[in-house]
Amino acid sequence: xxxxxxxxxxxxxxxxxxxxxxxxxxxxxxxxxxxxxxxxxxxxxxxxxxxxxxxxxxxxxxxxxxxxxxxxxxxxxxxxxxxxxxxxxxxxxxxxxxxxxxxxxxxxxxxxxxxxxxxxxxxxxxxxxxxxxxxxxxxxxxxxxxxxxxxxxxxxxxxxxxxxxxxxxxxxxxxxxxxxxxxxxxxxxxxxxxxxxxxxxxxxxxxxxxxxxxxxxxxx
Amino acid sequence: xxxxxxxxxxxxxxxxxxxxxxxxxxxxxxxxxxxxxxxxxxxxxxxxxxxxxxxxxxxxxxxxxxxxxxxxxxxxxxxxxxxxxxxxxxxxxxxxxxxxxxxxxxxxxxxxxxxxxxxxxxxxxxxxxxxxxxxxxxxxxxxxxxxxxxxxxxxxxxxxxxxxxxxxxxxxxxxxxxxxxxxxxxxxxxxxxxxxxxxxxxxxxxxxxxxxxxxxxxxxxxxxxxxxxxxxxxxxxxxxxxxxxxxxxxxxxxxxxxxxxxxxxxxxxxxxxxxxxxxxxxxxxxxxxxxxxxxxxxxxxxxxxxxxxxxxxxxxxxxxxxxxxxxxxxxxxxxxxxxxxxxxxxxxxxxxxxxxxxxxxxxxxxxxxxxxxxxxxxxxxxxxxxxxxxxxxxxxxxxxxxxxxxxxxxxxxxxxxxxxxxxxxxxxxxxxxxxxxxxxxxxxxxxxxxxxxxxxxxxxxxxxxxxxxxxxxxxxxxxxxxxxxxxxxxxxxxxxxxxxxxxxxxxxxxxxxxxxxxxxxxxxxxxxxxxxxxxxxxxxxxxx
Amino acid sequence: xxxxxxxxxxxxxxxxxxxxxxxxxxxxxxxxxxxxxxxxxxxxxxxxxxxxxxxxxxxxxxxxxxxxxxxxxxxxxxxxxxxxxxxxxxxxxxxxxxxxxxxxxxxxxxxxxxxxxxxxxxxxxxxxxxxxxxxxxxxxxxxxxxxxxxxxxxxxxxxxxxxxxxxxxxxxxxxx
Lengths: 220, 544, 176
Hints:
The complex is a heterotrimer of chains A (about 220), B (about 550) and C (about 180). Chain A has about 220 residues and is of the alpha+beta class. Chain A is built from five helices and ten strands. The radius of gyration of chain A is 18 Å and the shape is globular. Chain B is of the alpha/beta class and about 550 residues long. Chain B folds into five domains: about 60 residues, no CATH class; about 90 residues, 3-Layer(aba) Sandwich (Glutaredoxin), CATH 3.40.30.10; about 190 residues, Rossmann fold, CATH 3.40.50.11540; about 70 residues, Ubiquitin-like (UB roll) (Roll); about 80 residues, NADH-ubiquinone oxidoreductase 51kDa subunit, iron-sulphur binding domain (de novo design (two linked rop proteins), Up-down Bundle), CATH 1.20.1440.230. Helices cover about 45% and strands about 15% of the residues of chain B. Chain B has 21 helices and 16 strands. Chain B has a six-stranded mixed beta sheet with strand order 5-11-10-16-13-14. Chain B has a four-stranded mixed beta sheet with strand order 2-1-3-4, covered by helices on one side. In chain B, strand 13 and strand 14 form a beta hairpin. In chain B, helix 1 packs parallel to helix 3, helix 16 packs antiparallel against helix 17 and helix 18 runs antiparallel to helix 20. Chain C has a single domain, classed as 3-Layer(aba) Sandwich (Rossmann fold), CATH 3.40.50. Chain C is about 30% helix and about 20% strand. Chain C is built from six helices and seven strands, in the order βααβββαβααββα. In chain C, strands 2-1-3-5-7 form a five-stranded parallel beta sheet, sandwiched between helices. The longest helix of chain C is centred in the middle third of the chain and has 13 residues. Chains in contact: A-B, A-C. Chains A and B meet through helix 2 and strand 8 of A and helix 4, helix 16, helix 17 and helix 18 of B.
């Protein structure tokens, strides 16, 4: 049997598995945001950064190979993850107390897990466009982390291809495939997988107001 | 807006249809042509291109908002982009930029009220040996001076078409200062196939783009990879600040380049090749088109593909995305291009210099190539030398040449620092000038920028950090956000309002940037860290 | 006696309310610390203190001056709550210009009588952007939450009074 070392634990690896898949199968947690089983690994958030034989790599995209030595829970990597989370928070506008997703947000949960208490960097307070044009679904771009899960889910699961990514660098933005650029002019529905997969509060179903009490939410 | 302007806009969308008809199905090339014809890509044009090609709108919009030479907002009749490389700064480009804005009465990046001109900045245009330089409607003008800026301003005010501007403005020097193996006229019997691969292996040819992968091994892997149609791609997207050797090779050795690509094509059984040239070298279009038209090779066609202002497309997998007409986001690797390249098919991607060297080896240059250089780095390397020296230009040396020797030959005196490998490279101080250009010591795509003792290295650090923030594709968190944080910290230090924490932060960012998706982010603070370590006194000036 | 100061800048005093939610433990705390400037004492300016707790972000010149005074006088300065840490709800005005904000609040908003923008010289000048406290001064510890739970104040002060570095258990870390 082929094995891979994850923080010293020898874990079996199957042909074609990534390091992330090996770790998940062995119940060894590697923090991640843009990775979601069932979708092609993306590798953009870099939260699953590990050290493989001394080199940084994203666990979700890296093929697992016999004899690899993978470091996950080291002080150096904890610092990297903490910094990445802070970066995601400062580049957007993340006001958790005012966010419907709070308590069920994967970004927030990841930050709790890493013990993030402060932003460290200067927040940018970007001015991003909200799209409230659709009767049932809302886009709050302030919270988008460009994981592209909605892009893939809409295209590959819903068969609607509603979302895309445009821009470059810090001007990267989530865009909508309609002439007006507005969600109202698409056939999105609140039941779409694209809505459900959003790990943060960037794509929300309208008409719900803090339905689940604090203490009972997904990650409470 | 004038009536004429409105009319022009109205026909822009129709014109987009014509361009689609004429230019086939590559969205990026169509958008570049649209930009050229109408000084912008209107929302209507975006819709038409998308529907004509059967692509989602976001694909086309994504291109327009990704490539910096494309614009959704109309630009002036004259769109001027001043080259913003550190070597341009050293030659006074920032003052000339203000002078031009003043002459025309425009604010940076804002079109003049009468639609005459838009003046902005762009990353290094590859004219470092004859800067400062600018691009006007995509065409390079070098050797800028106060007088030339004033003259250009007058031509623009009189709305004189570019074709009627003095030829000398568009003259680009080659400045080949030292010729060696590559510039020799190799004319032996041409080796092909397995014999050529063996000769390249024996000669020790490694990729000239900087990474140094053995070329024969790459070609053989591609040949042996499963898959249908194969492609040969030449990467002439040299965007590394301070590099301009590909420009000179395209000017002087394009024939040999095409030979190299064709030799590769015959080995891997490719019928189609792409020459991806950075948009900054658009002035070479007629020259390259003519040479391509004169080629007589029915079995292997080479298509010119233009970049549009995106440094990241020099990264080979981003370049492949760009060839497919997408935003230049580097791919997840593996798979590598040899198995999964253009449209997912096995593809060889090599640098201009590598294909030229392969062709020279095929024509009998192998034995001499092997005899030159060092154990790990055979043959010669073209260096693009710029900055504070008497004779900037192209120098060909055997690998293993010392920095000292280069400085002596190019007439550099009183040298403080040498930046080898461009913004992503290393900054050397005087104690390191004995180091050698080769894969074992200083691997480089060939950029050598010289700084004399009058220079403040904060300027270089600021320039490089801004460059990376501007050129980050935005895909991954550490690079998208980290390069901007780095640039903000350097801006503070340069403006004299930095703190010790800013300096500490630049150090901390190192390990985070190394978690980036590709080499751009991973190397984004390498030079700045070198400068901080080697010239701390320059940075302390800016810290409270 | 350990001296403790607290203040609320651009905040809602919710963090202070949560601090009081320690209930009977607050009585034990006042045995061990003496309050300097704080809404609990109504002392208006801060003297030399061991610990300063700052609630709220910076939205005007007065906030900035108070924060700097706290930093100068407190050996340990703690940013308390979401607003101090990332600007919080007040920072949601950052996407609008100052003119837009003032017009909405004092001129065009619903139900406004006698619309006028207040210009009393006593009023502190607004900052262009609301920002977190770590942008202006060095902060030693952070207590996230909107508000931080009473238990978080306990953990923080317990550790600081012992001269230790506070470590919040994961269940006390939340941002809402």
